């Protein structure tokens, strides 16, 4: 299943952040310097191509686990979807936003690793890419760009990614601790250079 592209010339960062009417390119997303004011895709197309089943965050130095989530996945999901026996409901905003709660000791870490497990549908994915942007009070802290490459049809994939955390001054760290959920991120997922998923997250440090 392919997403439908609409031609649209980007005039400004604001044009990218608040426009719901187009399908965005990788180039569009790379230009962003502040959080989007809305979700830029429905996730419905993406969910018919790939399903995320497990996600972990850990400190690479101590190997201690900071966050973990796993969902039950029916191995017949994509076949049932193809036959019309299963449908994908539209995602609500609340279902697409994760709220992380970390200890303030998180700021002592220099590098964290994530493990992402996902299932591919009945069709191959030639290129699977994630661009993630992190902000504090609408200011860009750091961008991450991961290319997962080619994915075999009906395969289970486990991807390890490494995040080199940005260096922050003490004033910024104190402000981030004092302002829950003002630290945010946008995660954009591209299949064959088409945006098919967009999720958000907020961060609280205590």
From TrEMBL:
Domain of life the protein comes from: Eukaryota
Entry keywords, A to Z: Lipid-binding, Protein transport, Transport
InterPro entries: Ig_E-set, PDE6D_unc-119_myristoyl-bd, PDED_dom, PDED_dom_sf
GO MF annotation terms: lipid binding
GO biological process, one term: cilium assembly
This protein's GO CC annotations: cilium
Domain GMP phosphodiesterase delta subunit: from-to ranges: 50-205
Family note: Belongs to the PDE6D/unc-119 family.
Entry protein name: GMP phosphodiesterase delta subunit domain-containing protein
Species this protein is from: Clydaea vesicula
